Amino acid sequence: MKFKRMTPLGKVYLVGAGPGDPGLLTLKGKRCLEEADLVLYDGLVNPLLLRHTKATAERTSRADANGKRTLNQAEINDRLVAAGLEGKIVVRLKGGDPFIFGRGSEEAKALAEAGVPFEVIPGITAATAASEYAGISLTHREKASAVAFITGHEDPEKPELMLKYSELAKFPGTLVFYMGLHRLPAISASLIENGMPSETRVAVISRGSTPLQKTVTGALSEIHSLVKAAELRPPSLIIVGDCVTQRDEINWFETLPLAGMTIGITRPVQQADNALEIAHLFGARPILMPTMEIHPVKDWTKVDRAIESIQEYDWIILTSVNGVDAFLNRIWELGKDSRILAHAKIACIGPATAERLESYSLRADVIPEVYRGEELAYALREHVAGKKVLWARANRGREVLPEILRSVGADFESLVVYEHHEISQLDEVAIHALTNGEVDWIALSSPTIARRVAEQLAELDLAKSPKFAVISPVTEAAAIEAGLTVSAVATVHTWEGLFECIRNST
Asked: In angstroms, how far is the first alpha carbon of the chain from the final one?
Protein backbone atom coordinates (compact mmCIF):
# COMPACT_ATOMS: atom_id res chain seq x y z
CA MET A 1 0.00 0.00 0.00
CA LYS A 2 1.39 3.38 -0.99
CA PHE A 3 1.30 6.40 1.29
CA LYS A 4 -1.15 9.09 0.16
CA ARG A 5 -0.18 12.72 0.49
CA MET A 6 -3.21 14.25 2.14
CA THR A 7 -1.70 17.73 2.61
CA PRO A 8 0.83 19.90 0.77
CA LEU A 9 3.21 19.15 3.63
CA GLY A 10 5.38 16.08 3.49
CA LYS A 11 5.84 13.63 6.31
CA VAL A 12 8.86 12.45 8.27
CA TYR A 13 9.19 8.88 9.49
CA LEU A 14 11.65 8.30 12.34
CA VAL A 15 12.52 4.69 11.65
CA GLY A 16 14.50 2.33 13.85
CA ALA A 17 16.89 0.35 11.64
CA GLY A 18 17.94 -2.19 14.26
CA PRO A 19 21.51 -2.56 15.48
CA GLY A 20 23.26 -4.19 12.51
CA ASP A 21 21.65 -7.27 11.00
CA PRO A 22 19.62 -5.89 8.05
CA GLY A 23 17.05 -8.64 8.56
CA LEU A 24 15.96 -6.99 11.81
CA LEU A 25 14.32 -4.03 10.05
CA THR A 26 10.55 -4.06 10.64
CA LEU A 27 8.10 -4.53 7.79
CA LYS A 28 6.73 -1.04 8.39
CA GLY A 29 10.24 0.41 8.26
CA LYS A 30 10.83 -1.32 4.92
CA ARG A 31 7.58 0.09 3.55
CA CYS A 32 8.61 3.59 4.58
CA LEU A 33 11.94 3.20 2.78
CA GLU A 34 10.18 2.03 -0.38
CA GLU A 35 8.00 5.15 -0.44
CA ALA A 36 10.59 7.74 0.61
CA ASP A 37 11.79 10.71 -1.41
CA LEU A 38 14.72 11.32 0.94
CA VAL A 39 16.55 9.11 3.43
CA LEU A 40 18.80 10.56 6.13
CA TYR A 41 20.67 7.69 7.78
CA ASP A 42 23.01 7.33 10.73
CA GLY A 43 26.58 6.12 10.45
CA LEU A 44 25.73 2.94 12.36
CA VAL A 45 22.95 1.95 9.95
CA ASN A 46 23.78 -1.07 7.79
CA PRO A 47 24.06 0.35 4.23
CA LEU A 48 22.44 -2.83 2.86
CA LEU A 49 19.14 -1.39 4.07
CA LEU A 50 19.40 1.32 1.43
CA ARG A 51 18.63 -1.35 -1.18
CA HIS A 52 14.99 -0.98 -0.10
CA THR A 53 14.76 2.59 -1.37
CA LYS A 54 15.14 4.51 -4.60
CA ALA A 55 15.28 7.81 -2.73
CA THR A 56 18.22 10.14 -2.40
CA ALA A 57 20.17 8.89 0.62
CA GLU A 58 22.37 11.13 2.76
CA ARG A 59 24.52 10.02 5.66
CA THR A 60 24.06 12.26 8.70
CA SER A 61 27.09 11.05 10.66
CA ARG A 62 30.12 12.57 8.98
CA ALA A 63 33.57 13.49 10.17
CA ASP A 64 36.49 15.58 8.96
CA ALA A 65 40.10 14.41 8.61
CA ASN A 66 40.61 14.72 12.37
CA GLY A 67 37.58 12.58 13.19
CA LYS A 68 35.52 15.53 14.41
CA ARG A 69 31.80 15.37 13.68
CA THR A 70 30.82 17.89 11.01
CA LEU A 71 27.02 17.61 11.20
CA ASN A 72 25.44 18.23 14.59
CA GLN A 73 21.97 17.39 15.88
CA ALA A 74 20.59 20.88 15.32
CA GLU A 75 21.58 20.69 11.64
CA ILE A 76 19.89 17.30 11.32
CA ASN A 77 16.71 18.68 12.90
CA ASP A 78 16.75 21.62 10.47
CA ARG A 79 17.27 19.28 7.52
CA LEU A 80 14.27 17.14 8.51
CA VAL A 81 12.03 20.16 9.00
CA ALA A 82 13.06 21.74 5.69
CA ALA A 83 12.47 18.53 3.72
CA GLY A 84 9.08 18.05 5.37
CA LEU A 85 8.03 21.60 4.57
CA GLU A 86 9.06 20.98 0.95
CA GLY A 87 6.41 18.26 0.76
CA LYS A 88 8.80 15.28 0.78
CA ILE A 89 8.31 11.86 2.32
CA VAL A 90 11.41 11.59 4.51
CA VAL A 91 12.83 8.59 6.34
CA ARG A 92 15.18 9.35 9.20
CA LEU A 93 16.85 5.96 9.50
CA LYS A 94 18.41 5.50 12.92
CA GLY A 95 20.49 2.67 14.36
CA GLY A 96 18.61 0.56 16.89
CA ASP A 97 15.43 2.25 18.15
CA PRO A 98 14.77 5.98 17.57
CA PHE A 99 13.94 6.76 21.19
CA ILE A 100 16.36 4.56 23.15
CA PHE A 101 19.58 6.59 23.37
CA GLY A 102 18.88 7.64 19.79
CA ARG A 103 17.88 11.32 20.14
CA GLY A 104 14.79 10.62 18.08
CA SER A 105 12.63 12.43 20.59
CA GLU A 106 14.62 15.62 19.95
CA GLU A 107 13.95 15.26 16.24
CA ALA A 108 10.27 14.59 16.90
CA LYS A 109 10.05 17.73 19.04
CA ALA A 110 11.64 19.85 16.29
CA LEU A 111 9.16 18.49 13.76
CA ALA A 112 6.20 19.04 16.09
CA GLU A 113 7.23 22.65 16.76
CA ALA A 114 7.54 23.29 13.01
CA GLY A 115 4.15 21.72 12.27
CA VAL A 116 5.61 18.93 10.12
CA PRO A 117 3.66 15.65 10.30
CA PHE A 118 5.76 12.76 11.57
CA GLU A 119 5.52 9.18 12.76
CA VAL A 120 7.84 7.05 14.87
CA ILE A 121 8.53 3.49 13.72
CA PRO A 122 10.10 1.54 16.61
CA GLY A 123 13.19 -0.55 15.96
CA ILE A 124 14.95 -3.42 17.70
CA THR A 125 17.32 -1.81 20.18
CA ALA A 126 20.91 -2.93 20.64
CA ALA A 127 20.35 -4.30 24.13
CA THR A 128 17.89 -6.97 23.07
CA ALA A 129 19.50 -7.82 19.73
CA ALA A 130 23.15 -7.92 20.82
CA SER A 131 22.45 -9.82 24.02
CA GLU A 132 20.33 -12.45 22.29
CA TYR A 133 22.84 -12.82 19.43
CA ALA A 134 25.46 -13.40 22.14
CA GLY A 135 23.38 -16.06 23.88
CA ILE A 136 22.35 -13.92 26.85
CA SER A 137 18.79 -13.46 28.09
CA LEU A 138 18.57 -10.17 29.97
CA THR A 139 15.82 -11.54 32.21
CA HIS A 140 15.53 -15.03 33.66
CA ARG A 141 13.24 -16.59 36.22
CA GLU A 142 16.18 -17.64 38.39
CA LYS A 143 18.77 -14.97 37.58
CA ALA A 144 17.14 -11.58 36.96
CA SER A 145 13.62 -10.20 37.26
CA ALA A 146 14.54 -6.71 36.09
CA VAL A 147 16.74 -5.04 33.49
CA ALA A 148 18.04 -1.46 33.32
CA PHE A 149 19.21 0.34 30.16
CA ILE A 150 21.94 2.87 31.05
CA THR A 151 23.94 5.32 28.99
CA GLY A 152 27.66 4.75 29.10
CA HIS A 153 28.28 8.47 29.03
CA GLU A 154 26.00 11.24 30.24
CA ASP A 155 25.76 14.65 28.63
CA PRO A 156 28.68 16.56 30.21
CA GLU A 157 26.78 19.85 29.89
CA LYS A 158 24.04 18.75 32.30
CA PRO A 159 24.26 20.64 35.61
CA GLU A 160 24.00 17.40 37.59
CA LEU A 161 24.67 13.82 36.56
CA MET A 162 21.64 11.54 36.95
CA LEU A 163 23.40 8.18 37.30
CA LYS A 164 23.80 7.08 40.90
CA TYR A 165 26.25 4.18 41.05
CA SER A 166 25.34 3.63 44.69
CA GLU A 167 21.91 2.56 43.45
CA LEU A 168 23.07 0.81 40.26
CA ALA A 169 25.44 -1.39 42.26
CA LYS A 170 22.46 -2.71 44.25
CA PHE A 171 20.08 -3.09 41.28
CA PRO A 172 18.27 -6.46 41.52
CA GLY A 173 18.76 -7.53 37.94
CA THR A 174 20.77 -6.97 34.77
CA LEU A 175 22.55 -3.72 33.92
CA VAL A 176 23.03 -2.84 30.26
CA PHE A 177 25.34 0.06 29.42
CA TYR A 178 25.13 1.57 25.94
CA MET A 179 28.15 3.21 24.26
CA GLY A 180 30.42 2.79 27.26
CA LEU A 181 33.48 0.99 25.90
CA HIS A 182 35.84 3.94 26.44
CA ARG A 183 34.54 4.31 30.03
CA LEU A 184 34.66 0.63 30.95
CA PRO A 185 37.39 1.08 33.61
CA ALA A 186 35.41 3.88 35.29
CA ILE A 187 32.12 1.97 35.12
CA SER A 188 33.68 -1.17 36.62
CA ALA A 189 35.48 0.75 39.36
CA SER A 190 32.36 2.74 40.27
CA LEU A 191 30.23 -0.38 40.60
CA ILE A 192 32.83 -2.15 42.78
CA GLU A 193 33.39 0.95 44.94
CA ASN A 194 29.65 1.09 45.60
CA GLY A 195 29.37 -2.49 46.74
CA MET A 196 28.93 -4.70 43.68
CA PRO A 197 30.97 -7.92 44.09
CA SER A 198 34.15 -7.86 42.02
CA GLU A 199 33.43 -11.39 40.70
CA THR A 200 30.09 -10.31 39.13
CA ARG A 201 29.97 -11.59 35.55
CA VAL A 202 30.23 -9.08 32.72
CA ALA A 203 29.94 -9.40 28.93
CA VAL A 204 31.14 -6.79 26.46
CA ILE A 205 29.69 -7.25 22.98
CA SER A 206 31.29 -5.47 20.02
CA ARG A 207 29.38 -4.92 16.76
CA GLY A 208 26.37 -6.81 18.06
CA SER A 209 24.14 -8.75 15.62
CA THR A 210 26.60 -8.29 12.76
CA PRO A 211 28.85 -11.06 11.39
CA LEU A 212 31.79 -9.19 12.98
CA GLN A 213 30.26 -9.58 16.44
CA LYS A 214 32.80 -10.40 19.12
CA THR A 215 32.05 -11.01 22.78
CA VAL A 216 34.34 -11.00 25.81
CA THR A 217 33.19 -12.19 29.22
CA GLY A 218 34.84 -12.07 32.61
CA ALA A 219 34.64 -10.86 36.19
CA LEU A 220 33.86 -7.21 36.84
CA SER A 221 37.33 -6.68 38.30
CA GLU A 222 39.17 -7.99 35.23
CA ILE A 223 36.85 -7.21 32.32
CA HIS A 224 38.73 -4.09 31.22
CA SER A 225 42.04 -5.93 30.77
CA LEU A 226 40.30 -8.77 28.91
CA VAL A 227 38.55 -6.35 26.54
CA LYS A 228 41.77 -4.44 25.94
CA ALA A 229 43.62 -7.65 25.10
CA ALA A 230 40.85 -8.66 22.68
CA GLU A 231 41.01 -5.22 20.98
CA LEU A 232 37.25 -4.81 20.90
CA ARG A 233 35.91 -1.88 18.91
CA PRO A 234 32.80 0.26 19.21
CA PRO A 235 29.88 0.20 18.89
CA SER A 236 29.64 -1.95 21.97
CA LEU A 237 27.31 -3.01 24.75
CA ILE A 238 28.24 -3.83 28.35
CA ILE A 239 26.07 -6.35 30.21
CA VAL A 240 26.51 -6.81 33.96
CA GLY A 241 24.82 -9.57 35.96
CA ASP A 242 24.29 -13.29 36.48
CA CYS A 243 22.47 -13.59 33.15
CA VAL A 244 25.83 -13.46 31.39
CA THR A 245 26.51 -17.06 32.50
CA GLN A 246 23.85 -18.33 30.06
CA ARG A 247 26.21 -17.64 27.19
CA ASP A 248 28.17 -20.80 27.99
CA GLU A 249 25.14 -22.89 27.01
CA ILE A 250 23.09 -20.93 24.48
CA ASN A 251 25.62 -18.96 22.43
CA TRP A 252 24.42 -19.57 18.86
CA PHE A 253 25.27 -16.70 16.52
CA GLU A 254 29.04 -16.67 16.87
CA THR A 255 29.13 -20.42 16.16
CA LEU A 256 27.56 -20.18 12.69
CA PRO A 257 29.81 -21.78 10.05
CA LEU A 258 31.06 -18.55 8.42
CA ALA A 259 30.81 -16.27 11.46
CA GLY A 260 33.32 -13.43 11.24
CA MET A 261 33.93 -13.96 7.51
CA THR A 262 33.49 -11.11 5.02
CA ILE A 263 32.49 -12.26 1.55
CA GLY A 264 32.27 -10.15 -1.60
CA ILE A 265 29.00 -10.64 -3.52
CA THR A 266 29.61 -9.86 -7.19
CA ARG A 267 26.08 -10.26 -8.52
CA PRO A 268 24.20 -7.24 -9.88
CA VAL A 269 22.33 -5.48 -7.08
CA GLN A 270 18.98 -6.46 -8.59
CA GLN A 271 19.97 -10.14 -8.30
CA ALA A 272 21.74 -10.03 -4.93
CA ASP A 273 18.87 -10.74 -2.52
CA ASN A 274 19.29 -14.51 -2.53
CA ALA A 275 23.07 -14.34 -2.06
CA LEU A 276 22.74 -11.83 0.77
CA GLU A 277 20.18 -14.01 2.52
CA ILE A 278 22.41 -17.08 2.26
CA ALA A 279 25.39 -15.11 3.58
CA HIS A 280 23.45 -14.10 6.68
CA LEU A 281 22.20 -17.66 7.22
CA PHE A 282 25.83 -18.83 7.25
CA GLY A 283 26.80 -15.99 9.59
CA ALA A 284 28.95 -14.18 7.03
CA ARG A 285 29.18 -10.45 6.40
CA PRO A 286 28.28 -9.79 2.75
CA ILE A 287 29.81 -6.87 0.87
CA LEU A 288 28.13 -5.88 -2.38
CA MET A 289 30.71 -5.79 -5.18
CA PRO A 290 28.59 -5.70 -8.35
CA THR A 291 30.51 -5.55 -11.61
CA MET A 292 27.41 -5.01 -13.74
CA GLU A 293 24.01 -3.35 -13.62
CA ILE A 294 20.78 -4.67 -15.09
CA HIS A 295 19.00 -2.34 -17.54
CA PRO A 296 15.96 -2.73 -19.80
CA VAL A 297 16.64 -2.90 -23.50
CA LYS A 298 16.74 0.47 -25.25
CA ASP A 299 14.55 -0.67 -28.14
CA TRP A 300 11.74 -3.17 -27.61
CA THR A 301 10.90 -3.53 -31.30
CA LYS A 302 12.48 -6.96 -31.78
CA VAL A 303 11.08 -8.25 -28.47
CA ASP A 304 7.59 -7.02 -29.29
CA ARG A 305 7.77 -8.60 -32.75
CA ALA A 306 8.71 -11.97 -31.22
CA ILE A 307 5.88 -11.75 -28.69
CA GLU A 308 3.36 -10.92 -31.42
CA SER A 309 4.46 -14.04 -33.32
CA ILE A 310 4.96 -16.24 -30.24
CA GLN A 311 2.71 -18.95 -31.71
CA GLU A 312 5.51 -19.76 -34.15
CA TYR A 313 7.90 -20.94 -31.42
CA ASP A 314 7.90 -24.50 -30.08
CA TRP A 315 10.36 -23.93 -27.25
CA ILE A 316 11.21 -20.94 -25.05
CA ILE A 317 14.51 -21.01 -23.15
CA LEU A 318 15.06 -18.92 -20.02
CA THR A 319 18.48 -18.87 -18.38
CA SER A 320 18.16 -16.22 -15.66
CA VAL A 321 15.73 -14.71 -13.21
CA ASN A 322 16.10 -11.37 -14.99
CA GLY A 323 15.24 -13.00 -18.30
CA VAL A 324 12.02 -14.41 -16.83
CA ASP A 325 11.01 -11.05 -15.40
CA ALA A 326 11.87 -9.00 -18.47
CA PHE A 327 10.17 -11.33 -20.94
CA LEU A 328 6.98 -11.98 -18.99
CA ASN A 329 6.61 -8.39 -17.83
CA ARG A 330 6.88 -7.22 -21.43
CA ILE A 331 4.13 -9.66 -22.39
CA TRP A 332 1.96 -8.07 -19.69
CA GLU A 333 2.83 -4.53 -20.78
CA LEU A 334 1.64 -5.37 -24.30
CA GLY A 335 -1.80 -6.22 -22.90
CA LYS A 336 -1.30 -9.98 -23.03
CA ASP A 337 -0.66 -12.62 -20.38
CA SER A 338 0.86 -16.07 -19.96
CA ARG A 339 -1.97 -17.74 -21.88
CA ILE A 340 -0.17 -16.87 -25.11
CA LEU A 341 2.55 -19.37 -24.09
CA ALA A 342 0.14 -22.31 -23.68
CA HIS A 343 1.30 -24.03 -26.86
CA ALA A 344 5.03 -23.83 -26.13
CA LYS A 345 7.38 -25.82 -23.91
CA ILE A 346 9.73 -23.98 -21.57
CA ALA A 347 13.27 -24.87 -20.52
CA CYS A 348 15.13 -23.29 -17.59
CA ILE A 349 18.79 -23.51 -16.71
CA GLY A 350 18.32 -24.13 -12.99
CA PRO A 351 16.06 -24.07 -9.94
CA ALA A 352 16.30 -20.32 -9.28
CA THR A 353 15.08 -19.51 -12.79
CA ALA A 354 12.39 -22.17 -12.55
CA GLU A 355 11.24 -20.83 -9.20
CA ARG A 356 10.87 -17.34 -10.62
CA LEU A 357 8.92 -18.80 -13.54
CA GLU A 358 6.59 -20.47 -11.04
CA SER A 359 5.85 -17.07 -9.50
CA TYR A 360 4.09 -16.33 -12.81
CA SER A 361 2.16 -19.64 -12.47
CA LEU A 362 4.25 -21.34 -15.17
CA ARG A 363 6.21 -24.59 -14.87
CA ALA A 364 9.40 -25.50 -16.68
CA ASP A 365 9.29 -28.61 -18.85
CA VAL A 366 13.05 -29.15 -18.77
CA ILE A 367 15.63 -28.33 -16.07
CA PRO A 368 19.06 -29.99 -16.40
CA GLU A 369 20.55 -31.85 -13.45
CA VAL A 370 23.69 -29.69 -13.71
CA TYR A 371 22.98 -25.97 -14.00
CA ARG A 372 25.21 -25.01 -16.94
CA GLY A 373 24.52 -23.91 -20.48
CA GLU A 374 26.11 -27.06 -21.91
CA GLU A 375 23.95 -29.34 -19.78
CA LEU A 376 20.79 -27.47 -20.75
CA ALA A 377 21.72 -27.79 -24.40
CA TYR A 378 22.39 -31.53 -24.02
CA ALA A 379 19.03 -32.00 -22.27
CA LEU A 380 17.27 -30.27 -25.18
CA ARG A 381 19.07 -31.87 -28.12
CA GLU A 382 16.62 -34.72 -28.65
CA HIS A 383 13.60 -32.37 -28.45
CA VAL A 384 14.45 -29.46 -30.75
CA ALA A 385 15.44 -30.90 -34.12
CA GLY A 386 13.31 -29.11 -36.71
CA LYS A 387 11.68 -27.01 -33.96
CA LYS A 388 11.68 -23.26 -33.61
CA VAL A 389 13.42 -22.16 -30.40
CA LEU A 390 13.42 -18.72 -28.74
CA TRP A 391 16.07 -17.85 -26.13
CA ALA A 392 15.19 -14.80 -23.96
CA ARG A 393 18.56 -13.59 -22.73
CA ALA A 394 20.89 -10.75 -21.79
CA ASN A 395 22.92 -8.75 -24.30
CA ARG A 396 26.08 -10.65 -23.37
CA GLY A 397 26.99 -14.13 -22.29
CA ARG A 398 28.28 -17.46 -23.53
CA GLU A 399 27.08 -18.75 -26.93
CA VAL A 400 27.08 -22.45 -26.12
CA LEU A 401 23.28 -22.85 -26.39
CA PRO A 402 22.90 -21.62 -29.98
CA GLU A 403 26.03 -23.47 -31.10
CA ILE A 404 24.90 -26.86 -29.80
CA LEU A 405 21.20 -26.61 -30.62
CA ARG A 406 21.72 -25.31 -34.15
CA SER A 407 24.08 -28.23 -34.73
CA VAL A 408 21.20 -30.67 -34.10
CA GLY A 409 18.81 -28.87 -36.44
CA ALA A 410 17.00 -26.36 -34.23
CA ASP A 411 15.74 -23.13 -35.80
CA PHE A 412 17.29 -21.06 -33.02
CA GLU A 413 16.69 -17.36 -32.31
CA SER A 414 18.35 -15.26 -29.58
CA LEU A 415 16.24 -12.45 -28.17
CA VAL A 416 17.84 -9.81 -25.94
CA VAL A 417 15.24 -8.88 -23.28
CA TYR A 418 17.56 -7.08 -20.84
CA GLU A 419 21.06 -5.66 -20.82
CA HIS A 420 24.17 -5.95 -18.67
CA HIS A 421 26.11 -2.69 -18.34
CA GLU A 422 29.54 -2.68 -16.73
CA ILE A 423 30.06 -0.65 -13.55
CA SER A 424 33.12 1.55 -13.89
CA GLN A 425 34.32 1.08 -10.31
CA LEU A 426 33.38 -0.47 -7.01
CA ASP A 427 31.47 1.59 -4.46
CA GLU A 428 33.12 3.18 -1.42
CA VAL A 429 32.06 0.47 1.04
CA ALA A 430 33.62 -2.30 -1.07
CA ILE A 431 36.79 -0.31 -1.77
CA HIS A 432 37.22 0.47 1.94
CA ALA A 433 36.77 -3.19 2.90
CA LEU A 434 39.21 -4.40 0.24
CA THR A 435 41.93 -1.85 0.86
CA ASN A 436 41.74 -2.46 4.61
CA GLY A 437 42.09 -6.20 4.25
CA GLU A 438 38.61 -7.00 5.56
CA VAL A 439 37.45 -9.20 2.68
CA ASP A 440 38.16 -12.90 3.22
CA TRP A 441 36.49 -14.32 0.10
CA ILE A 442 35.06 -13.08 -3.18
CA ALA A 443 32.38 -15.25 -4.79
CA LEU A 444 32.41 -15.30 -8.61
CA SER A 445 29.28 -16.46 -10.42
CA SER A 446 30.17 -16.15 -14.12
CA PRO A 447 33.19 -15.92 -16.42
CA THR A 448 32.36 -12.30 -17.29
CA ILE A 449 32.21 -11.35 -13.61
CA ALA A 450 35.50 -13.14 -12.93
CA ARG A 451 37.28 -11.16 -15.64
CA ARG A 452 35.78 -7.86 -14.50
CA VAL A 453 36.67 -8.45 -10.84
CA ALA A 454 40.28 -9.13 -11.84
CA GLU A 455 40.36 -5.78 -13.67
CA GLN A 456 38.83 -3.89 -10.72
CA LEU A 457 41.16 -5.40 -8.12
CA ALA A 458 44.21 -4.59 -10.26
CA GLU A 459 43.38 -0.90 -9.73
CA LEU A 460 43.41 -1.17 -5.91
CA ASP A 461 46.15 -1.33 -3.30
CA LEU A 462 44.96 -4.34 -1.31
CA ALA A 463 46.01 -4.83 2.30
CA LYS A 464 45.65 -8.58 1.74
CA SER A 465 44.52 -10.75 -1.13
CA PRO A 466 41.08 -12.33 -0.70
CA LYS A 467 40.43 -15.92 -1.65
CA PHE A 468 38.23 -16.66 -4.64
CA ALA A 469 35.36 -19.14 -4.88
CA VAL A 470 33.76 -19.86 -8.25
CA ILE A 471 30.37 -21.25 -9.18
CA SER A 472 31.53 -23.67 -11.90
CA PRO A 473 34.57 -25.05 -13.77
CA VAL A 474 33.81 -22.68 -16.65
CA THR A 475 34.05 -19.69 -14.29
CA GLU A 476 37.17 -21.23 -12.75
CA ALA A 477 38.88 -21.32 -16.15
CA ALA A 478 38.01 -17.67 -16.82
CA ALA A 479 39.22 -16.61 -13.37
CA ILE A 480 42.55 -18.40 -13.77
CA GLU A 481 42.99 -16.93 -17.25
CA ALA A 482 42.39 -13.47 -15.73
CA GLY A 483 45.17 -14.06 -13.20
CA LEU A 484 43.11 -14.98 -10.13
CA THR A 485 43.97 -17.89 -7.84
CA VAL A 486 40.90 -20.02 -7.24
CA SER A 487 40.61 -21.61 -3.79
CA ALA A 488 37.19 -23.25 -4.03
CA VAL A 489 34.90 -24.52 -6.80
CA ALA A 490 31.20 -25.20 -6.19
CA THR A 491 30.09 -28.75 -6.98
CA VAL A 492 26.46 -27.55 -7.12
CA HIS A 493 26.40 -24.58 -9.48
CA THR A 494 24.20 -22.24 -7.43
CA TRP A 495 24.83 -19.55 -4.84
CA GLU A 496 23.97 -22.08 -2.15
CA GLY A 497 26.68 -24.27 -3.64
CA LEU A 498 29.12 -21.35 -3.68
CA PHE A 499 28.69 -20.72 0.03
CA GLU A 500 28.89 -24.42 0.79
CA CYS A 501 32.22 -24.72 -1.00
CA ILE A 502 33.53 -21.69 0.95
CA ARG A 503 32.37 -23.35 4.15
CA ASN A 504 34.15 -26.57 3.26
CA SER A 505 37.35 -24.68 2.41
CA THR A 506 37.46 -22.62 5.61
From this structure: 44
